[in-house]
Write a structure and sequence with these properties.
single chain; alpha+beta; five-stranded mixed sheet; 17 strands; 25% strand; binds 2,6-di-O-phosphono-beta-D-fructofuranose
């Protein structure tokens, strides 16, 4: 019987090396990416054994957003900072887990905005969570440059869905690519991702329990459109958005404006702009989709004023984003 030939796959680092060479770019970005990938693998390892090692649970502290910090959040933060520091390529980082901007290497050339473990309600169940990041480049001629960047200025953004071994990476003007982890813990087989045009596979994803708290116009849009598509909601942005990229459709986290307890309203939305909304919007744009906020403004155009500012989010297939944008921007008199 003929032996099956060994299958050799292109690795993410091989893919990135070719990309950098093709565009006559430096190796600095590769070193940064190696650091982020190493961090993701390390986090994945801790996550897989989290229950057995007693790392699934609360740490006893509360983060800047008033949320209980899980032990795994802290581990993931420590791992990521370690690798970013050892890369020597990051001037400063912004993390969901840190109130202040984190200075890393004064001579670094990149800003990294990240959430090391997004989707905390899934952690205690060992279900999928995300390690999400956006990368922007420092203005190398301006030593004082440390300002916050809009998504349009990101050069790359990515998300690892942990612990599923999938990695989706978007490179500025070079597309969105998906990789899978192999038995040697390498991310391999770069596959170009483009949102499917056929609405047959499209899905809507949002927290349906919140629908009565949305604005009148958003509720109406949902009522008019939801039966046309399947509905899926994991409750971790990276996992939900992973499906949006594969199947098309729309993920949304609208403004909460009609909560029975007005203190629980979130007119600015829940997700964080720099390391959640802009990350998925950048990935989506490179895959042929788009994203807007509650005002119908493209997410990638929003200039952050605060590292942890929140944003509403509608992200996915262009026809759906255009449709919801028309609804969101209707004159008040037409809605009533
Ligand atoms: P979580 O609160 O569980 O950390 O912004 C974080 C996030 O998860 C996203 O990953 C997820 O899409 C969303 O919030 C889930 O929010 P709801 O629980 O309100 O649906």
């Amino acid at each position: 019987m003929a032996e099956k030939p060994i299958q050799f796959e292109e690795t993410v680092m091989g893919f990135l090396l070719n990309h950098q060479e093709k565009h006559h770019r430096t190796h600095h970005f590769l070193i940064l990416m190696d650091a982020l990938i190493s961090a993701a693998k390390h986090i994945e390892h801790y996550y897989l054994t989290g229950t057995l090692k007693g790392n699934i649970g609360l740490s006893g502290s509360v983060n800047i957003h008033g949320e209980d910090v899980m032990r795994m959040d802290q581990i993931a933060q420590e791992i990521t900072i370690h690798y970013l520091r050892s890369s020597g390529r990051v001037i400063h980082a912004i993390s969901e887990e840190s109130d202040k901007i984190i200075p890393i290497s004064p001579d670094g050339r990149y800003f990294v905005y990240f959430d090391p473990l997004d989707g905390s309600s899934n952690v205690r169940h060992g279900l999928p969570v995300g390690f999400m990041f956006g990368v922007a480049k420092k203005d190398l001629d301006n030593r004082g440059d440390n300002h916050l960047r809009s998504g349009n200025e990101y050069i790359a953004a990515g998300m690892f869905v942990i612990p599923t071994g999938t990695f989706t990476l978007a490179l500025k003007d070079a597309g969105t690519w998906r990789f899978h982890i192999d038995e040697t813990m390498e991310f391999v087989r770069p596959t170009r991702m483009t949102l499917p045009e056929n609405p047959k596979s499209w899905e809507l994803s949002f927290n349906s329990a919140n629908r009565y708290t949305y604005s009148e116009r958003v509720r109406t849009w949902i009522e008019q459109n939801e039966t046309k598509y399947a509905f899926r909601y994991v409750g971790a942005l990276a996992a939900d958005f992973h499906r949006t990229i594969s199947n098309g459709g729309m993920f949304m986290y609208p403004a909460i404006v009609n909560h029975p307890d007005p203190k629980k309203n979130r007119p600015q939305g829940k997700l964080r702009l720099m390391y959640e909304a802009a990350v998925v919007s950048f990935i989506c744009q490179e895959a042929g989709g788009s994203a807007v906020d509650e005002r119908g403004i493209p997410i990638l155009d929003i200039q952050p004023k605060d590292p942890h500012q929140r944003s509403t989010l509608y992200v996915g297939s262009k026809p759906l984003i255009e449709s919801i944008t028309r609804t969101l921007t209707l004159a008040e008199s037409v809605v009533q």
